[in-house]
Amino acid sequence: MSGGTGPEWLSQEVKTGTTIIAVEYNGGVVLGSDSRVSAGATVVNRVMNKLSPLHDKIYCALSGSAADAQTIAEIVNYQLDVHSTEIGEDPQVRSAATLVRNISYKYKEELSAHLIVAGWDRRDGGQVFATLNGLLTRQPFAIGGSGSSYVYGFVDAEYRRGMSKEESQKFVVNTLSLAMNRDGSSGGVAYIVAIDEHSTEERVILGNELPTFFDQ
Asked: Which InterPro entries match (predicted)?
C-alpha cells in the first residue's frame, strides 16, 4: 500500500512486457505473440490476445503500453473501414502500416507503443511492416517486445526466405517458446494468426503444448 491510495500496482502503468513476431512466407504471413500483461512485477492478465485485426486480412501485433497499443489499433481499424468503403475494395497492407506509423509519430511523446503490421493484399501479397517512432519499413520478418532481445540469434540463424506456411508457423512457435522461457515478462499461451489469399486462421497454443528445448 502507498499513501492510503490502494496497492502500488494499481497506480502503475500497465505495459506489455511481451514477445511479438511476424514473418512473410510464400503466399502470406504468420503473426504470433505471447499473452502475458504486467504492471511492474505484477502479472495482471495471463491471456491477453496481442494480435489485433485491422481489417479482414490485416493484423497488428501489439507491444508497449497495452492501453496505448490497443487504442492505436482501434483507431486504425475504424479508419481502414472508412478507407475501404471509399475506394470500394480491401485496403493495402502498406496503407494500414502507414496509418499506424502516422499516429505513432504524431503522438510519440504521449504514447508508448510499438506495432508490427502484417497481412495480405492483391497487389503485393504477404507483407510485414515494422513501425516505430516514424519508421516504416517492410521486412521479411520482424520481432519486438522485451522477449525479442533473447531470440535475435535464433531468428537470424533459423529464418529462410521462401518458407512454406507450415514452416513459418513452426518458426514463429519456436521463437515464442524460447522467448517465453527466457523472458520473465513474457509467458502464458501463444496466439498465432496465418493470413493468405484464401483464409485468416487463428490458433491458440497452450503453455503445456509449446515445444521444449534442451534446458527446459
From this structure: Ntn_hydrolases_N (IPR029055), Pept_T1A_subB (IPR000243), Proteasome_bsu_CS (IPR016050), Proteasome_sua/b (IPR001353), Proteasome_suB-type (IPR023333)
User: Is 138 part of any domain?
Assistant: yes
Higher-confidence position of 50 and 13? 50
In a domain, 215, yes or no: no
Domain with 74, as residue range(s), is: 18-200
Q: CATH number of the domain that 22 lies in? A: 3.60.20.10
At 154-192, the pLDDT tens digits run: 999 999 999 999 999 999 999 999 999 988 888 899 999
pLDDT single digits (tens) 21-43: 999 998 999 999 999 887 767 77
If pLDDT is split at 50, 70 and 90, which confidence band does 214 have?
A: low
The residues near 31 (Cβ < 8 Å, ≥ 6 apart) are 20, 21, 22, 51, 59, 61, 116, 118, 172, 192, 193, 195
Could you tell me which of 80, 60, 79, 58 has the C-alpha nearest to residue 68? 60
pLDDT at 148 over 50: yes
**Among candidate residues 132, 116, 124, the one with its CA nearest the CA of residue 54:** 116
Phi-psi region of 11 (alpha: psi -120 to 50; beta: other; left: phi over 0): alpha
Q: Is residue 182 part of a domain?
A: yes
In a domain, 6, yes or no: no
Q: What percent of the chain has pLDDT over 90?
A: 73
Number of domains in the chain: 1
Q: Could you list the active site residues?
A: 18
